[in-house]
Amino acid sequence: MSKSHSIEGNIIPFIPEGDFYFSKGIEAYQKQKFDLSLKWFQKAMEEKPDNPLYQCQTSIVYTEIGSYHLANQLLTRVLAKQGEEYIDCYYLIANNYAHLGLLQDAIKYAELYLEKATDGEFREEAATLLEMLDFDDEEEDDNDWTLDEEDDLLMYQETAFYHLEREEWEEAIAVLEEMIALFPEFSQARHEYHYALFFIGERKEAIEMEEKYLQDHPDALFSLMNLAIFYGLEQNNEKSNYYTNMLENIYPIHEQQKLRIAVTFTQIGLYDKALPRFKMLHKSKLKGHPSYYRWYSTCQYYLGMKEEAEQLWREGCKHFQILAEQAPPWK
């Protein structure tokens, strides 16, 4: 748990090592103090950066707070170095991919887990996850990437996500262009690219590209959300209503997609439709999303819930410096 060195007199200095930090992280995790838990686990990993147990437990905290990309980066690193010794990583990765809406990846890792862990602890959960997942036809079947490629994709995703959440459009576009070139089958990058393109002023091009994508992939949820926003902000109410009417009947199972629909309704002023969607969300799984605080508080404000809006905005400012540097959207 710790090491000590005797010095003059009876003083024995206490010098924490990784195991001490790890035990403190477990205590905080059990009390659901996830931010504190994460700090302790990160200290443990600083002491023992290659300890797979520390990395796995840290990934679980990342999952709890909604940082699914960071969780999977740690888990893929463990698999790359430890191989079959930590088979549960396959299920944890599948679960994170499901939350991200990357359904084919979730299916692939859940199936790998069931194949490799014949008596695994999470077999029942993995089987249930597979039953819940609806296969997304817009993803290509041939998705047999190496672990290094998976890790690269996760790093690109996390970087693009960071810029998009902070509305840093130019920076996001640069990352997304590289993603599209390197991972052309990863469809979400295209939707995020169209979204960022629209907000730097290339509205016509963004709409045309998204319309073309939807024509080729009629069930693309991100296309429906993007086009509802694009046409709404272009004040083309007929087309915007067409897409929002479709979204009203869609209730995804993944937290990020649920948030995206709520944000979509808010961005085009449909606050009464957005509010119940926000209420369905689990805030603990969206702590890595400034957009949750930005748009939920906006929705509340314009529905007359001004005190609640101010309170939620202040909470977001405590978590995100980018929000603290801005005025609330309604001001």
UniProtKB/TrEMBL annotation:
InterPro entries: TPR-like_helical_dom_sf (IPR011990), TPR_rpt (IPR019734), Ycf3 (IPR050498). It comes from Gracilibacillus caseinilyticus. The keyword DNA damage does not apply. TPR repeats lie at residues 18-51. This is Tetratricopeptide repeat protein. Signal peptide: none annotated. Keywords: Repeat, TPR repeat.
